[in-house]
Amino acid sequence: MKMSLQVELEQQRNVLIVRLRGELDHHTADIVRYKMEDAILRGRCDHVVLSLKDLQFMDSSGLGVILGRYKLIKGRGGKMVVCDTQPSVKRLFELSGLFKILSFYDSERSAVAGLEVVS
Q1: Which residue, 35, 36, 75, 116, has most beta carbons within 10 Å?
Q2: Three-state SS string across the chain, please?
Q3: Domain boundaries, the chain
Q4: pLDDT bracket for residue 1 (50, 70, 90)
């Protein structure tokens, strides 16, 4: 059986923390798109931290979702940062060029702290 994806959302003040666990591919991309979009549009979050510590796998449709949410939050004047990426996932970010537009942090704590400075 293929491992699916779990999405955990937590809001800390004006920062939405999105924790992805499992596999982000074309089967699960829509779930992430919907949940993040819903939280961004409904909530009072200015920024997003994408925590990928437990994300085992991601493909190009996963990148598409992340890029789309990045544009959404940027369009609202916010920032999106990524933390805790696995080497294989990090490589995909590098190859796609997303590395150039997103800031990467080692931990959730440093990511949130990095955003506090911005807002």
Answers
A1: 36
A2: CCCCEEEEEEEECCEEEEEEEEEECCCCHHHHHHHHHHHHHHCCCCEEEEEEEEEEEECHHHHHHHHHHHHHHHHCCCCEEEECCCHHHHHHHHHHCHHHCCEEECCHHHHHHHHHHHC
A3: 5-118
A4: very low
